[in-house]
Here is the input.
Amino acid sequence: MTGVKLRKAKNVLMTLLMLAATAAILFPLVIIFAHIVKMGFSSISLDFFLHIPKPTGETGGGMANGMLGSLVLIGMASAIGLPIGIFGAIYLSEYGGGRISKVIRFAADVLNGIPSIITGMVAYTLIVVPMKGFSAFAGAVALALIMTPIVLRTAEEQLKLVPNSLREASLALGVPLWRTTFKVTLRSAMTGVMTGVLLAVARIAGETAPLLFTALGNMFWSKKLTEPIAAMPLQIFNFAISPYEDWHRLAWAGALVLVTLMFTISLATRYFSRQKY
Amino acid sequence: MPASSESGRNMKNDNCAIEAGAGSIVETGSSLQKMKKMLNGDFIFKGITVFFAFSIILILLLMLFEMTSQSLPSIRKFGWDFIYSSQWDAVTEEFGALPFIFGSVVSSILALLLATPLSVGAAIFLTEITPRKIGGIISSLVELLAAIPSVIYGLWGVLVMAPWLQRTVQPFLIEHFGSLPFFQGAPYGVSMLAAVLILMIMVIPIITSITKEILMAVPQSQREAAIALGATRWEMIRMAVLPYGRSGILGSVILGLGRAIGETMAVTMVIGNTPQISLSLLNPAYTMPSVIANEFAETTSDMHASALMEIGLILLAVTLIINIIARFLVWSVTRGESRGGMIQ
Amino acid sequence: MGTKIKLEDMNVYFGNNRAVKDVSIDFHENMVTAIIGPSGCGKSTVLRAMNRMHDMIPSARVTGKIIFDNGDIYDRNVDPVAIRRRIGMVFQKPNPFPAMSIYDNVIAGYKLVGRLKRQDADETVEESLKRVALWDEVKDRLKKSAMELSGGQQQRLCIARTIAVKPEVILMDEPCSALDPIATAKIEELVNELKEQYTVAIVTHNMQQAARVSDYTAFLYLGELIEFDKTGKIFTNPEKKHTEDYITGRFG
Here is the structure.
């Protein structure tokens, strides 16, 4: 009987170890989140959302230019990435099959695995050098390079989920394929596709590396899209590594805003995808 | 399912009937024209989608091409020595990538060694031990960790973790383990140790969530076979679940490795950015993405830029190979059968 | 012939759904008892209650008693892990461990408890494989993966794995439904031999199989035991009209 007792004891021990492992991996989440809230909350004020950073050493100021800059960059990146991603996904799901589709999917997966700093380097070579300067446009291209394969793969998956009977019903009515795709297939997959897009947006909203030598960052408001532009993650980076307490506080506040945004999007997409099924 | 040209042909007849009124094929002329218009619409549409789909391949090729061609000057000048040399001097234009390769490889592997037992243990706990609902909630929390941007990990790392290491952990390590070469030196805070820890935290959610998927792909019949033989739950996991999923779990670890090597911001902010090769975890170090992040915007010469490009190329090649291997391993398990999960 | 294991007013609930209703069956020692009935009538549920497999399902609840070795296996003090050693199970779809060799699959039950001496392991493997008439077919490739065997061979391997730990009762849940006729015939032959040493309970949706293979038959319908008797009687002269209707194929 001691044999069985030993085995049961081992079972309990391993269960406790697994529990400890789970607690261990949740621990950083709690700590990091706690710090962000604690350090960031006090710096959040209307000023934060309305003003640009003050020069070094002065209190106050905010990250308004970074927030606007991020919006601009995301908007431009989406303008490039969404059409390629969605139309590409339509090709793969509606016309695809065969070797070419496999190659396209493979290419998208490869792009998905590339470290984001490399997209920055490529955008630098392709845009910054010919334009002889850093710009919001270059930053948007770098971000689009990250966004496109994500949108492509998630949109394709969502389109594939639409049952064939819907397409066939529409085609049988004499509706041409292109209209069918937009009005029936895409509409049916819209929630899922939007979820994918939101997740891609959340991803690029937090990306810093590709912007380091494309958008470059800007202490002031940008006037033109061909100029360097501020972005929240860039500002957080620069403030965090600076020696100034005030800028550190701004960085924490920016982190709080960014993280809140991420979590909200994450929860929202989870909620919406559950609703569908 | 793609619309084949056959159904296109069938559609023509339907269009005829609908456009021209029920039951009669009147005014063939204008109907034919309307058919042509619709066909053109489809043709254009397909053309657009093909164009955009193919552009993905073009984008990838373009990226590879740019990275390679920009690196060529450096490749031509330094050859294989680039990988073995530790010299990184922008003034004399002598560049060698060894410290960065060392930093990337060591920080990533150590982070993986620490992260894997924790991640796999947690994944087992969440799939096999907790009831589905609780497991789901905790998994969601773990996924939230994955959504935190790298720069925010870096922020916490440089302003909270590194000072803490400097104040508490590193003096402790120096005092008690200072005789070992791994813990020699002064407490800097920003160091290889800090990079390892932050990478570990960042890589855990990936390994955990993929391992969870792997475990859930193990068929329930396997678990039942072990239970029917009189296994305890841990014995069942060890005998039926883990061996079945082991290549997939390995795949998830390798995927985590790929992520760790490519990680830029968080590492740059806590590793100290000093190109040196040292056994001590307490010393600052430098990784491939970090040196690019720090120096690329302000290169002092074309050769400098090319050398950084070459480092980028090495980084790209390494992550590509790692990702391909990892995906293959994961795919080989998850393409299987019915999902399984927790037992009492 | 004594009773080896006995169900007494057993009910099985899944949540609020009462899947098995007040079932009482005597499984006689060294006999084969078949459980027949239309699909979904609770046959497998009854079988799985007998080695406490339902413990795996959170919403499952078993009431009543299952008497084995002078005790109720659902008693608080009884350890399900120990019970499953003595009451083994063979499943519908063969489930050998793919990560193990044929050799290791046979002694998988022993691997749980610790290490077998090499000689003991060799003997156990040979003996078990011989009993299931698989030894000659695999003796030259014992170290190869179990997945290289055919479906019928895999199922016999699973039976070998089950008997290697020397149980007293063997539960078989439609063991032939995933196999071709030739493999099925081999397994049926095996079941006939197994009863010399073990008590066998077999669930099957194939009436002819039940008639060929079993000594006693229990007919279950919608979770209730309609009739239980010697196989010969059930198939030639059943008491209940319901049984007769099922046997003659009027439904199910």
